[in-house]
Write a structure and sequence with these properties.
about 70 residues, mainly alpha, 434 Repressor (Amino-terminal Domain), two-stranded antiparallel sheet, 5 helices, DNA binding, Helix-turn-helix domain-containing protein, Cro/C1-type_HTH, Lambda_DNA-bd_dom_sf
């Protein structure tokens, strides 16, 4: 599974989701879905804007983790 560490990077940058939303031009709702891992996907153009705004690499935001065993 792919885990999203957007909340961690936002905290490190002392930035809110609302501030990020304004900078990248993506709604808070869509960023919230991404942050909570409920988004089905993310466009590369959106990922690019987020990385620019947060001065980070895609790998700082996305992490692969093995699926939990039932």
């Amino acid at each position: 599974m792919i885990a999203v560490n957007l909340d961690v990077v936002l905290a490190q940058r002392k930035m809110t989701l609302t501030q990020l939303s304004r900078e990248v031009g993506v709604t808070v709702v869509n960023l919230s879905l991404l942050k909570t891992g409920k988004a089905k996907g993310v466009r590369f153009s959106t990922l690019d804007k987020i990385c620019q705004a947060l001065d980070c690499q895609p790998g700082d935001l996305l992490e692969w983790r093995p699926d939990p065993q039932p």
